[in-house]
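hey m, so remember when u said the tokens were messed up on ur end? i reran from scratch. heres the input so u can diff it against urs
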Amino acid sequence: MTVNRVKVTIRCRLCGERFILKGRRDKGKIETGFKRCICDNEHDLEVETED
């Protein structure tokens, strides 16, 4: 089982808040533990990854 660390930038499209996190890439999915923005937005998010 290979687990890679990646830098993940999450930007809220509602309020513009930006979060920079470390995530794990496992089986094509990225897991950061991020749940929602501080404005309670859970769905309208822009996610960028950098290896």
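this time it looks ok to me. Strands lie at 4-12, 18-26, 29-31, 45-50. if urs says something different then somethings off w ur setup not the seq
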